[in-house]
Specification:
The structure is a single chain. This protein folds into two domains: 239 residues, Aldehyde Dehydrogenase, Chain A, domain 1, CATH 3.40.605.10; 198 residues, Aldehyde Dehydrogenase, Chain A, domain 2 (3-Layer(aba) Sandwich), CATH 3.40.309. The chain is 43% helix and 17% strand. The N and C termini lie far apart (62 Å).
Length: 489
């Protein structure tokens, strides 16, 4: 089969036409999977190597396309998060997949194991995996899942975001160059294409995006009972201890808050700190932001908000918070005027004394705004976190090990970083995923392989048929003796 058509799949097609096109490719991929069977480790490594090669060869074009889509996006940030970040995940899977593929021995029921019965778990490809990737890290959140998908022996169909049109078109070209459409295919397009894609009968579907859209994706997937991995977001809190180093904490928090202009599912969404330390944090945050970004408007390291709609949404949060009594601290180291600009850059802003009635405390922010709340005792902070939907990430700063352990044991989040923010997602050997409103399922590392594998139970009966016969009628003394011995406290 020829390569080269994947970049044109569904371009300009209506929802119905796109659905027919995508279903045809899905059928081809499934037929190829059934014909080939579970691919060898060598074949899986080859598919991962092709993804790695694409990222290395197209790194400059990736930076250009993403900057075009954002109006401006930091080149180094793109290389760090979307290129290097994806490469690490892919290389980790390449290194370990042979061991992951091995079947796992389990213990048969007594006494059958003593008589020669065997039990194992075999890891089988699910088949065709659908991936719906978002706009904020469009390359990373397309390529990083391929590590687990290809390591587990699957084929893949991808629907990238319509917000990053240039990047989606580039990825279409890349995939068409490196993969036959029976291995990997990409389908650019708008909401109609996305709706049709989420309704396809995949063997597994990974969606990364907003919680509000996840309801629709889950509903569509349910029509075909498609198993889901949902990577969502929510409001990831930062809890600063009295014992924290506030200069260090402010530097790391502002680094995470200003990276990608806060357009990160794991970005710190609000900070909780002792009442007597708020002014200190504000001063340290100003200092840190100025050191990281001495200027903002023309600074190539500072990324723009993706588009006008999201820029207006963020400005609306500020207007709403101001009107409801919050104190806004705009951090603008060079005092630049942002009213006239060719992009949608927004200065980072601290929102002091926010109330839960404010929109900025209800919605996932996805921008460089940071509400700051105070507490009298850390248990107030824990209770506040627990009174709200479970977040994708939680961050604790401090050197009090007992307090840290209390925060970790009494709160539930997808993942945690201690004395930094966001970093747990970059650890290739840790699972990445949410819980409840912040998602379901996890990938990265071994958990990614398991997520995209069918864990097939295989039992081999003992050849001593007389022993196995105790479980079949007519029941006699041997069966009764077995039951008496096993039904105990």
């Amino acid at each position: 089969m020829s390569k080269g058509s994947a970049s044109n799949h569904s371009n300009g097609a209506s929802g119905d036409a796109a659905s027919r096109q995508m279903r045809a490719i899905l059928d081809k991929q499934r037929e190829a999977q059934l014909a080939e069977g579970a691919p060898s480790a060598r074949k899986r490594i080859d598919r991962i190597n092709r993804a790695i090669d694409l990222l290395v060869r197209y790194q400059d074009e990736i930076c250009d396309a993403m900057s075009s889509d954002f109006g401006h996006r930091s080149r180094e940030q793109t290389l760090l998060t979307d290129v290097m970040g994806s490469l690490g995940t892919l290389k980790h899977a390449r290194m370990h997949l042979r061991s992951w593929m091995r079947s796992q021995k389990r213990s048969p029921m007594f006494p059958l194991g003593l008589l020669g019965a065997k039990a194992r778990v075999h890891y089988q490809p699910k088949g065709v995996v659908g991936v719906i990737s978002p706009w904020n890290f469009p390359v990373n959140l397309t390529f990083a899942p391929l590590a687990g998908i290809f390591a587990a022996g699957n084929r893949v169909m991808i629907k990238p975001s319509e917000y990053t049109e240039a990047t989606s078109a580039l990825m279409g070209k890349m995939f068409a160059e490196a993969y036959d459409e029976t291995e990997a295919a990409i389908f650019p397009g708008g909401p109609d294409v996305g709706t049709a894609f989420s309704g396809l009968p995949f063997d597994h579907l990974l969606f990364t995006g907003g919680t509000s859209i996840a309801y629709h994706v889950m509903r569509a997937a349910s029509e075909n009972l498609v198993p889901l991995t949902l990577e969502l977001g929510g409001k990831s809190p930062v809890i600063l201890s009295e014992s924290a180093n506030y200069k260090n904490a402010a530097t790391k928090i502002m680094t995470g808050k200003m990276m990608n202009a806060g357009q990160i599912c794991l970005s710190p969404d609000y900070a909780l700190m002792p009442k007597g330390r708020v002014d200190e944090f504000v001063n340290k945050a100003k200092e840190a932001a100025g050191e990281l970004y001495p200027s903002l408007k023309e600074n190539p390291d500072y990324t723009s908000v993706i588009n006008r709609r999201h820029y207006d949404r963020l400005r609306g949060y500020l207007d709403d918070a101001r009107s409801k009594g919050a104190e806004l601290v705009e951090i603008n180291p060079s005092g630049e005027d942002f009213s006239q600009q060719p992009h949608h850059k927004l200065p980072p802003t601290l929102i002091l004394n926010p109330s839960d009635e404010m929109q900025v405390m209800q919605d996932e922010i996805f921008g460089p705004l940071l509400p700051v709340k105070s507490y009298s005792h850390v248990r107030e902070a824990i209770d506040y976190v627990n009174d709200h939907p479970r977040p994708l990430g939680l961050y604790y700063f401090g050197d009090d090990s007992a307090e840290r352990d209390e925060v970790l044991s009494r709160t539930t989040s997808g993942g945690v970083t201690v004395n930094d923010v966001i970093m747990h997602v970059s650890m290739d050997d840790l699972p990445f995923g949410g819980i409840g409103p912040s998602g379901m399922g996890a990938y990265h590392g071994h958990e990614g392989f398991l997520e995209f594998s069918h864990k097939k139970a295989v039992y081999t009966q003992t050849k001593l048929d007389k022993a196995a016969g105790m479980f079949r009628p007519p029941y006699g003394d041997a069966t009764r003796k077995l039951l008496k011995g096993q039904i105990t406290r």
